[in-house]
TrEMBL record:
InterPro entries: Aminotrans_IV, Aminotrans_IV_CS, Aminotransferase-like, B_amino_transII, BCAT-like_C, BCAT-like_N, BCAT_family
Keyword flag DNA damage: no
Keyword Amino-acid biosynthesis: yes
Family of the protein in this entry: Belongs to the class-IV pyridoxal-phosphate-dependent aminotransferase family.
CDD domains the record matches: BCAT_beta_family
One term of GO molecular function: L-isoleucine-2-oxoglutarate transaminase activity
List of residues that carry N6-(pyridoxal phosphate)lysine: K197
Needed co-factor(s): pyridoxal 5'-phosphate
Protein name per UniProt: Branched-chain-amino-acid aminotransferase
Chain ranges passing through the membrane: none
Pfam families on file: Aminotran_4 (PF01063)
Species: Aurantiacibacter zhengii
Amino acid sequence: MKFEHIQHPAPVPGATRAQAIADPGFGKVFTDHMVMIDYDEGEGWHSATLGPCEPIPLHPAASVLHYAQEIFEGLKAYKLTDGTMALFRPEANAKRFNASAKRLAMPELPEDLFIESVKQIVKKDADWFPGVEGGSLYIRPFMFANEHFLGVRPATKYKFIVILSPAGNYFKSGAPAVSVWISEYTRAAPGGTGAAKCGGNYAASLVPTGEAFAKGHDQTVFLDAAERKWIEELGGMNLFFVFDDGRMITPPLGGTILPGITRDSIMTLAREQGLDVAEEMYSIDQWRDDAQSGKLVETFACGTAAVVTAVGKVAGRDGEFTIGSGGPGQLTSTLREKLVGIQRGTVEDTHGWVMKLD
Ligand SMILES: *Cc1c(COP(=O)(O)O)cnc(C)c1O
C-alpha cells in the first residue's frame, strides 16, 4: 500500500523539541506525525497517510465511544550502539494485534502493513529520539471502530493509527524493586478478553490500581476470577517466580493472561542460560509460604515499557511479605541486562529479534 505523505504545516521548532525530549518521562510527549489507515467493509484497508499528529474528528455516535471496540499495541524503537535505530520483534506485535482484533470482532491488518506503518513514522520522526541514557521512542499502534451507529454489532468502519512518544528510562541504573498490592477485583475471566490487548481491560484495572496507589503500592497483582487463588499478572506486566533450586515459573497463558512478548523473550533467554523454566499455576498462599521459607528467592514483572522490574514487597488483605532481601535479585538483574543488551546491540542477537531500520 502506498502512503500519502501530508506536509506538516508547522512542525515543532528544533529548540522546543530538544527541550521536550530532554527528560520526556513516559507517554507525555508526542512527535510531529502519525500514520493513519482507514477500513471500510467491502473495500478493506485504504487511504494510508503519514501526516501531522493532530486531533481526529469523531461523530458522537462513533461506536468506539459506546461499546469500546478498541485494541492497541506497544513497542519501542531503540538506538543501537552504532547509532542505527532498531525495532524489537515487531512481527510479534503485528501478530498479537491481529489476535486482539479477532477477539474484538475487528478486521485484521496485514502484518507487513503494520510493520511498514511503524517503520514509516519512526523514520519520519527520528529527530525526536531522546538523547537520555536508556531513552527510546515508544510506539503506540491502535485501532478503533468509527462507524456512526448505536446498534450493538461489530462496526463496518475502523481507523488504524500509529503515534510515537519519546520515552526516558523507566528506571535509572539500580532499578528499584516495586511493591505490589493483591487486588480483590479481577481483570479477566475465562472466556473474556484477558488475552486481547484492548482498552477495556485497562478501564477495568483503574479502580484496583488506584486502590494500590492509595495504599502506597506501585502495581496491582490480579488473581484468577474463578477461585481468587491463582496469580495471573499485573495490570500491564507478566510475572515470573524464581526458586532457590534454579527453577523459574510463570503463570500459563489460558485466555486470561496477556501473552507478553517480553515474557516470551525472557523464557527463551532463561532456558538458554540453563534454567528450568515452566509455565505453571502458582497460588497466592504458596507465594507467601515460599517467600517466608526462603524457597522463593526472586519475583519480577516484565513488559515493554519497564522491561524487567523486581517485586520486593507484596501486600494484600492477609498482610504483607517481603521477597528475598526486598531488592532486585541476581537473576532479575542478569536477565534484564541481557535483554536490554540485545535491544541496544551490546549483546549478540542470536534469535533474529532485532530489526534494523536502515
Ligand atoms: C502489554 C501487556 C503486557 C506486556 O506485554 P509485552 O509484549 O511484554 O509488552 C502484559 N500484560 C498486559 C495486560 C499487557 O497489556
